[in-house]
Amino acid sequence: MAHNFDEIIDRRGTYSIKYDEAEKRGKPQDALPLWVADMDFRTPECVTDALIEKARHGIFGYTDTDSDYAASVTGWFVRRHGWRAEENWLVKTPGVVPALHMAVKAFTELGDAVIIQQPVYYPFVEAVSLTGRKLVVNELVETDGYYTIDFDDFERKIVENDVKLFILCSPHNPVGRVWRREELERLAEICLRHGVIVVSDEIHADFVYPDVGHRHIMFASLSDEVRGITVTCTAPSKTFNLAGLLISNLFIADEKLRRAFIAEYERCGFSQLAVMGMVACKAAYDGGEPWLAELLTYLEGNMNYLDEAVKSRLPGVKFRKPEGTYLAWLDMRGLGIDARKLDDFVLDSAKLWLDEGRIFGAGGKGFERVNVACPRSVLAEAASRLERAIAAIG
User: Fold this and answer.
1) pLDDT tens digits, residue range 341-367?
2) Helix (H) or strand (E) holding 310
3) CA quadruple 142, 145, 149, 152: dihedral positive or negative?
4) 102 and 212 share a domain?
């Protein structure tokens, strides 16, 4: 590989919440952090070069993008996902999570119902509860580590609760599903029939593993009708490790929905975003594909390593390699540890700082989420720590 993903880069003392906030968050200082979903890899040189050039210019006044930026962003989705968005659909925000909050407020009223599919990325719940809306959960069905959608329950709960909005996670975090076309089409058909707007979080779209034989399908690409009810949330932050630069790109084809979202955005007091995020995004989409190709190969190797470690060295733990994302969803129910005490075992005995499954919803109890976007030696150390802790249970 031209890029050295095995390099250990010291992130301590860089204001990293992953490495510098253990004490603040009540975690042991010696716990190995594999929780929050950023990567321990440097972004590609095309990005750092563009940022250095802008820094050397030395003026950081109010800034906005032009058609060249839009062409870079839309071109990425044409090349990578076969989906052509138009420039006027583009709305830039400082992140997908704040965009979720804005979307809930823009498209629903206080007390309206919003449906999500748990176990799922926990800020989905916050986007509903913190905005005074009613949370409705369509629980995913787990069979031997593989998750499917209960479509009958999905539709029934939409009808019973008069659901106005559906927040879709695609690819799904944390269970790692890359939804098939027929699954997405069935969700779309139900939402169209009942007038439900779909906010589709597709931030992990670029992480689909070749050996799985799947491809990511943009929800809005299913049909013109589906595009008209969809807000597509994308960002370069996961793909190129740019989360700290606060840039995301939403696509809203329907003019009425787009105006409603922009009105809510403006009520938050935002106008122009930080220039460095926009510079990094354009540079990444223009020149980052060779780096990404090597990254995907490396991450697939990490998943394979973890899979073998679980099978050969971690009794009581189950793992099904994900179809997408760089997040591993470990089933630790076989250890016989009460779900309420599992995180203490992981932290205190294994000295690992992971994301405990229960924060993703009731279906996550007994699971732990592991971020494998790290040098393989770090992942190996994590597996060894867990192996020793399990052996000590007796």
Assistant:
1) 999 999 999 999 999 999 999 999 999
2) helix 289-313
3) negative
4) yes
> What is the pTM assigned to this prediction?
0.97
Q: How many domains does the chain have?
A: 2
Q: Using an 8 Å Cβ cutoff, are 233 and 124 in contact?
A: no
Q: Where are the beta strands (DSSP E) in the chain?
A: 32-33, 90-93, 113-116, 134-137, 141-143, 146-148, 163-169, 197-201, 230-234, 248-252, 318-319, 327-331, 352-353, 355-356, 367-371
Confidence of residue 212 (pLDDT cuts 50, 70, 90): low
Answer whether residue 180 shows pLDDT above 80: yes
CA distances from 285 to 72, 212, 280 (A): 6, 24, 9
Rounded Cα distance between 310 and 323, Å, is: 17
Q: What is the DSSP secondary-structure string of 6-68?
A: T-----TTTT-HHHH-TTTTT--TTPEE--SS--SSPPPHHHHHHHHHHHHH----S----HH
In the prediction, which pLDDT does 138 show? Answer: 98
Judge if 162 and 175 occupy the same domain: yes
Contact indicator for 281, 299 with CB cutoff of 8 Å: no
Whether the predicted pLDDT of 25 surpasses 70: yes
